[in-house]
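Slide 14.
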Amino acid sequence: MAVMGGRYADGSSGKRIKPNLSMLQIINMSMGFLGIQMAFGLQNGNASRILANLGADVHELSWFWLVAPITGLIVQPIIGHMGDNTWSPLGRRKPYFLIGAVLCAIGLVLLPNAASVTQMFAANALLLAVIFLAMMDASVNIAMEPFRALVGDMLPKHQGTIGFSVQTILIGIGAVLGSYLPDWLTKLGISNEAPKGFVADNVIYSFYVGAALLIISILYTIITTREYSPQEFAEFEDGKEAEPEKSKFSDIFKDFATIPVQMKKLGIVQFFSWFALFTMWVFTTSALATHHMGLSPEDTHSKAFNDAGDLTGKLFGMYNLWAIPFAFLLTPIAKWIGKKQTHALALLCGGLGLISMYFIKDVNNLWVSMIGLGFAWASILAMPYAMLIEVIPQRKMGVYMGIFNFFIVIPQIINGLFGGPIVSGVFGKQAMDYVVVGGICMLIGAVVTMIFVKSDNETPKEIEEEIKQVHF
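Slide 15: predicted structure.
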């Protein structure tokens, strides 16, 4: 159990300072992220492949992927607001972990079995797959947002970087497991060939394993971590903790209208970063199949296409694997050169990594591209949030984390609407050309970080003035 405690700022009474948590406590409170990211890794590496197996054309893929950002746009601010005003015997954030995990596990079981479910209910397999994908995405968002807010809830601000870095490490481990599972099962003799209109067995069984580990990891966090009580939060806020009974959903719009300036600047960076990531997740399988393996864009069922799907999973596993050591390095690098400089450098490496995929012809050498993407992914998952919690108040932690998600999902929605038609109409269904566009967007994110985001050496007074822009 996490040991609650703390001390008063003046040594007697008044506002309490949050105690430092041990590394074990930080790991315990973030362990559920391993399962969440395993589910996310399975989805990222296999959703396009599953949809293609069920009949989706390459220019339609980005439209189907719109399900994820749209559900995130709706769900995360609501869950953040509800979490800020939830006080249950289970805790403040943990009820949402549990609900999201159970629903996501069900989605993991149903998504790759859409064709089988179709036979029982006489429905369209592709339509059912999209519905199950929406269920997964909504559930992941229900579980994911409270984990971000939990770091802000439980840790003093000076431990924010290490807190989000630990989450990044666990995210990397979970994503590696999720990304590599289909390939590992293929090597164990489970088929990776999909009959027309169905999904390969290695993918189906991978999703089953992901569902089980998701539930186990979430339960571990729930059992090993105790959240602060409303009274303790009130003491941290000098007696000004928000009163749940006075909150209402319309407050979300008021909060959005008064977001801190630093959050807006970080939002611009997030826009370009996640536009690039969405491009990579949606189009890599098709890019590898056409650019590296010479397949026709219409080939979405052959063994060679499914080999490209397996390779996509392995490459995604590689960048997540590289993200793990980079996550360990984020804190010392940030102390050395600053948080914003660290993030800009990481985005530069990520952009070059995506662009290099076009020029590396031998698929056996594509691991080189994943090094830069691993650095970028580690930083994207940690540094913006570490900079964000410095300028948002404790009692609005959940809702502002949810609103910050807008800057993640809006670029994905825009990309989802126009990415497919651009690949089809502008690039002649050669998806690798659009992957390069994603790399350029990540480079733009690096430039924006250096020019617009405030440096680490801003004074506490400046931060305080920024917080005062938020009205309650």
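Speaker note: The CA atoms of residues 115 and 125 lie 5 Å apart.
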